[in-house]
Design brief:
CATH superfamily of the largest domain: Aldolase class I
Low-confidence stretches: none
Strand content: 15-25%
Number of strands: 12
Shape: elongated
Structural class: alpha/beta
CATH architecture of the largest domain: Alpha-Beta Barrel
Largest sheet: 8 strands, parallel
Helix content: 25-40%
Mean pLDDT: 97
Number of helices: 11
Strand order of the largest sheet: 5-4-3-10-9-8-7-6
Number of domains: 2
CATH topology of the largest domain: TIM Barrel
């Protein structure tokens, strides 16, 4: 069990849902605060930001490998620097956003993208840290976060088993065992067939830690499936409306979808239950609706049971149907009416 703020995370409680704001505030603090309100209305557990500046994450270069030229890329036609100018959350907004979260009963934390971001977030006393997929091989950053002693959530997009092992060992070497790994596919949007959720129980066994899902697919189906495989944390990007645009809007959830995510992942978690054979307590009243053996005609004492007067019907209060052939030809002890449940004490 891991605890972030007042929230426990583990298989014993409903999935911990993180609403990732990313750059969907579109450089408006008012919109950012409205997003927090929408997240609270949807019933999520936490809102997460990203903490960097264009200058801490890349270089002010607009050519070569610093320019996004891939025509299939969601952010094509701009440099990395230009993209992060649009996407970053001004550091002076963090306190206001975190305060709004606290006011509405939400947890708030962030993904730091370099060591200066960790120092800044420590001044805000964040309850946890998230390491983004692209930073899961940044061992110095992971080590610095681990040293805070706070819970760490690491997205595993693109990482090999060896790279994840190094990240996990780095965290644990600092005496920090409060770790969650999120299965993640780092494409935007991601497709269900590329999600490979079968990795979740395998990753849990390999690293002996809690596993969740950082989900970039559309809809909620993949997240619901992840919960049935043991995911205890679900992270999804969210926005006010995809039609309004924004750097991540194309693969972000709208408020009604976020609400459905909260509801349906909880239902999925509740459905897992435990290994169960035989009727549950709730099913016991339904047992009577099984088929069983009944007298199908009025009979006199001494009459023989035949295919005409012995019926296999509902309800299930008579002898089990598996005894049908065994009791055919046997005599009845006393007069019985049609509709009498057959029992052993009626037979001679």
């Amino acid at each position: 069990m891991i605890k972030i703020g007042h929230k426990e995370i583990g298989s014993h409680t409903k999935p911990f849902i993180i609403a990732e704001m990313s750059g969907n505030h579109n450089q408006s603090l008012e919109r950012a605060l409205h997003l927090v309100e929408l997240a609270a209305e949807a019933g999520v557990d936490a809102v997460k930001l990203q903490t960097y500046t264009p200058d801490t994450i890349t270089l002010d270069v607009h050519t070569g490998e610093f320019f996004i030229s891939n025509q299939d890329d969601l952010w094509k036609g701009q440099s990395l620097y230009e993209l992060y100018q649009k996407a970053y959350t001004p550091w002076e907004w963090h306190q206001a956003i975190f305060d709004k979260c606290k006011e509405l009963g939400l947890l708030a934390f962030s993904s730091p993208f370099d060591e200066t971001a960790v120092d800044f977030l420590e001044t805000l006393d964040v309850p946890a840290y998230k390491i983004a997929s692209f930073e899961n091989v940044d061992i110095p950053l992971i080590r610095k976060v681990a040293k805070t002693g706070k819970p760490i959530i690491i997205s595993t997009g693109m990482a090999t088993a060896a790279e994840l092992d190094e990240a996990v060992r780095t965290v644990r070497a600092e005496g920090n065992n409060q770790l969650v790994l999120l299965k993640c596919t780092s494409t935007y949007p991601a497709s269900p067939e590329n999600s490979n959720l079968a990795t979740i129980p395998h990753m849990k066994e390999m690293f002996q830690t809690q596993i969740g899902l950082s989900d970039h697919t559309m809809g909620i189906g993949v997240a619901v499936a992840a919960v049935t495989l043991g995911a205890t944390v679900i992270e999804k990007h969210f926005t006010t409306s995809r039609a309004e645009g924004g750097v991540d809007a194309a693969f972000s959830m709208e408020p009604h979808e976020l609400k459905a995510l909260v509801e349906e992942t909880e239902r999925a978690w509740l459905s897992i239950g435990h290994i169960q054979y035989g009727p549950t307590e709730a099913e016991l009243p339904s047992v009577k609706n099984r088929r069983s053996l009944y007298i199908g005609e009025d009979m006199k004492a001494g009459d023989l049971l035949t295919e005409q007067n012995l019926r296999n019907v509902r309800p299930g209060l008579g002898l089990e149907t598996k005894y049908y052939e065994l009791v055919l030809g046997k005599a009845i002890k006393k007069d019985v009416k049609k509709g009498t449940a057959l029992s052993w004490d009626l037979l001679l």
